[in-house]
Amino acid sequence: MHIEFLVEEPSAEVTLNNLVPKIVGPEISYNIHVFQGKPDLMKSLPIRLRGYRSWLPDNWRIVVLIDEDREGCLKLKEQLEKIAKDEGLITRSVAGPGGSFQVINRLAIEELEAWFFGDITALRTAYPKVPKGIDRRRHYRNPDAIQGGTWQALERVLINAGYYRGGLPKKEAALKISEHMDPTRNTSKSFQVFRNALQELVS
Question: 60-67 and 103-108: which strand pairing?
Answer without folding.
Answer: parallel
